[in-house]
TrEMBL record:
Family: Belongs to the ABC transporter superfamily.
SUPFAM superfamilies to which the protein is assigned, alphabetical: P-loop containing nucleoside triphosphate hydrolases
Keywords annotated in UniProt: ATP-binding, Nucleotide-binding, Transport
Pfam families on file: ABC_tran
Molecular function in Gene Ontology: ATP binding; ATP hydrolysis activity
Name of the protein in question: ABC transporter ATP-binding protein
Gene3D superfamilies assigned to the protein according to its UniProt record, in alphabetical order: P-loop containing nucleotide triphosphate hydrolases (3.40.50.300)
Domain ABC transporter: 5-229
Length: 303
């Protein structure tokens, strides 16, 4: 399957600051791809390059089979990068009308996207009166105007209340099931886990993982709460990799060995107060990967 977005060795340097450092990324047709990383990791810089807003320092980038910024690529791509910008003195509806006229989009499509993002009732209000969440939704509406094959959204739930976040997640899932491809950047781990098919994790400008969400989470783990914890951790390393999470220990071991794990701990004089299986959360994996990469070097927050 040919990738709609294919990036190899992407680097972006601002003076002495390396914002993106040799990133490889591939987004396949019809998937919702989560681009995950902390603020300042390089997500927005990468998306700016993909949409032709800035040029890379080095590396190769192909979007919809062409170069970012080419007319044919722009025609098939809808995007919202950072905070959406519109004319403040015009209504949301009139802002979309201007964009639609420029892009050759019908008036009917304007009504459709306003309905999709639940802004129909406020469409005639000035943009300057919109809340941050409403501005964000209008930005998504603008990204969908051309009925694009590829939708690139930078932190689309930023500023939304819990109900708005739920509705935005539903919309993004629907876009994926309708055959569109969505590239979604976020620093919200739960959001990515709920709606994305695959995820790429970036930290300090470097790609540290790219996998199917289920593959990245891996198999089930044993959660153990025991005292003394340090002694229990030393014993558990016999069974598999062990890491701490809050006040519990997580052991990557076949859950069928739970009884054996419990027996060994008890025989060693360890007080076991909790032992059960759980799937690894994306949050756990994210912090493991980003902590491993962190070396204490300082980088400027450039997106």
């Amino acid at each position: 399957m040919d990738a709609l977005v294919e990036v190899s060795g992407l680097t972006k340097r601002y003076g002495g600051t390396l914002a993106v450092d040799g990133v490889d990324l591939k987004v396949l047709p019809g998937e919702v791809y989560g681009f995950l990383g902390p603020n300042g990791a390089g997500k927005t810089t990468t998306l700016r390059i993909l949409t032709g807003l800035i040029a890379p320092t080095s590396g190769t980038v192909r979007v919809l089979g062409g170069r970012p910024g080419d007319a044919a690529v722009l025609k098939g791509t809808g995007s919202m990068i950072e905070s959406p910008a519109f004319y403040p003195y015009l209504s949301g509806l009139d802002n979309l009308r201007l964009l639609a006229e420029y892009a050759g989009v019908s008036r009917q499509r304007i009504d459709e996207v306003l309905e999709l993002v639940d802004l129909t009732d406020r469409a005639k209000d000035r943009f300057s009166t919109y809340s941050l969440g409403m501005k964000q939704r209008l930005g998504v509406a603008a990204a969908l105007l051309k009925d694009p094959e590829l939708v690139i959204l930078d932190e689309p739930t930023n500023g939304l209340d819990p109900a708005g976040m739920r509705d935005m997640r539903r919309l993004i899932r629907e876009l994926g099931t309708e055959g569109r491809t969505v590239l979604l950047s976020s620093h919200l781990l739960g959001e990515v886990q709920q709606i994305c098919d695959r995820v790429g994790i970036i930290n300090a400008g470097r790609m540290v993982a790219e996998h199917n969400v289920d593959e990245l989470r891996g198999e089930q783990e044993l959660v153990v709460r025991a005292t003394p914890k340090d002694t229990a951790q030393a014993i558990l390393t016999r069974f598999g990799s062990v890491h701490q999470y809050d006040d519990t220990l997580r052991v990557q071991v076949d859950p069928a060995q739970a009884a054996e794990v419990n027996r060994v701990l008890v025989e060693a004089g360890i007080a076991v107060s909790e032992l059960h299986t759980t799937e690894r959360a994306l949050e756990d994996i994210f912090f493991e990967l980003t902590t491993e990469l962190s070396t204490g070097e300082e980088k400027t927050d450039v997106g």
